UniProtKB/TrEMBL annotation:
Residues in coiled coil: none
Domain Alanine dehydrogenase/pyridine nucleotide transhydrogenase NAD(H)-binding: 147-309
EC category name: translocase
Function of the protein: The transhydrogenation between NADH and NADP is coupled to respiration and ATP hydrolysis and functions as a proton pump across the membrane.
Claim: Lipid metabolism is one of the keywords in the record: no
Keyword NAD attributed: yes
Protein's recorded name: proton-translocating NAD(P)(+) transhydrogenase
Chain ranges of the Alanine dehydrogenase/pyridine nucleotide transhydrogenase N-terminal domain: 6-138
Source organism of this protein record: Dyella nitratireducens
Length: 366
């Protein structure tokens, strides 16, 4: 019997992505696997059922009853998990940090679950790195939101009514999202600067045509993330940053670490010191925000400064976000399937470290 790889229509509020695209369905079919999707699974992402030449479609109950490997963008709801057969493999962004009830449900049902956000940040894992692929989308969209919401043009314009100077834009955090935001601001014609506590990011920021903002604080960490600042380092950072912020028209913050609250980088006092009409787009809003005044999903007016806390930005560009995400899913699924059967190699670091539950056992220590 061939393995049945499935995906559902995502039901989380505002979620428009899909875990399996027509391209990936064709690849899976080429491996001799059966692809079974819930009807209209890809419709919101721009992939109608008719575009899936290599997939079968059924209603929700039939898909859950037949799936051997269920790919998802966000965690399936409790009812869907309850209807899966024991030993089904669940693969996607499962958000296990702090999700005690969800992890318990996966374990009680004896599901083998892999959370791709737990993948080690290694060179070999890059092709499966959903955090990076989706952060690229989020960084791009965050800067578009900044350009649309700012009261000023981003580029310099020379007109019969005079010359308009370009906006000064700062991106805080030079990870994947931050670098994509920088690149987008550059394309839009803004005068762009980037900042990160990891000194090794200077070269990446400057390679995109941006200036690196030097605040004199270094916090290089491991796994591609910055270490936590000491109280003295944080005070020095905030004092230096407060002075620089007065010159910027727009600030995009992107500093976040999976499973932890976002670091508070912009204080209320800093915001109050910014120029009238300044704008902050806080990409870390989902994990509490980098700004003390951020309200997730809301627009806040504090004095003459606007703070935006957009959520799930990757879902706002669902077609390309889904294409990248589905390729991540496919590349990881190749580690799980050998000789036409689901046989994960738990001696493989990528498999072992991303596994949350395995046939009733909880492996995610956090």
């Amino acid at each position: 019997m061939s393995i049945t790889v499935s995906a559902l229509r995502e039901t989380a509020a505002g979620e428009r992505r899909v875990a399996i695209t027509p391209e990936v369905a064709k690849k899976l079919r080429g491996k001799g696997l059966r692809v079974l999707l819930e009807r209209d699974a890809g419709k919101a992402a721009g992939f109608p059922d008719a575009s899936y030449a290599d997939a079968e479609f059924a209603d929700l109950a039939q898909v859950l009853a037949q799936a051997d490997l269920l790919a998802c963008v966000l965690p399936p709801d409790d009812a869907a998990l309850a209807d899966l057969r024991e030993n089904t493999v669940v693969l996607g962004q499962l958000r296990p940090h702090g999700a005690v009830a969800r992890v318990a449900a996966l374990s009680q049902k004896k599901l083998t679950a892999f959370a791709l956000e737990l993948l080690p940040r290694t060179t070999r894992a890059q092709a499966m790195d959903v955090l990076s692929s989706q952060a690229a989308v989020a960084g791009y969209r965050a800067m578009l939101i900044a350009a649309e919401s700012a009261p000023k043009f981003f580029p310099m314009l020379t007109t019969a009514a005079g010359t308009i100077r370009p906006s000064r834009v700062l991106v805080i955090g030079a990870g994947v999202a931050g670098l994509q935001a920088i690149a987008t601001a550059r394309r839009l014609g803004a005068q762009i600067e980037g900042y990160d506590v990891r000194p090794e990011t200077r070269e990446q920021v400057e390679s995109l045509g941006a200036k690196f903002l030097e605040l004199g604080v270094s916090a290089a960490g491991s796994g591609g993330y910055a270490r936590e600042l000491t109280a003295e380092e944080r005070a020095a950072q905030q004092q230096a940053l407060a002075e620089h912020l007065k010159a910027f028209d727009a600030v995009v913050t992107t500093a976040a670490v999976p499973g932890r609250a976002a670091p508070k980088i912009l204080t209320t006092a800093m915001v109050e010191g910014m120029k009238p009409g300044a704008l902050i787009v806080d990409l870390a809003a989902e994990s509490g925000g980098n700004c003390e005044l951020t309200h997730p999903g809301e627009r806040v007016e504090h004095g003459d400064v606007t703070i935006l806390g957009p959520l799930n930005l990757a879902a706002g560009a669902p077609l390309h976000a889904s294409e990248m995400y589905a390729r991540n899913i496919y590349n990881f699924a190749e580690l799980l399937i050998r000789d036409g059967a689901l046989q994960p190699d738990f001696n493989d670091e990528l498999v072992a470290k991303s596994c949350v539950t395995r046939q009733g056992e909880i492996l995610f220590s956090a």
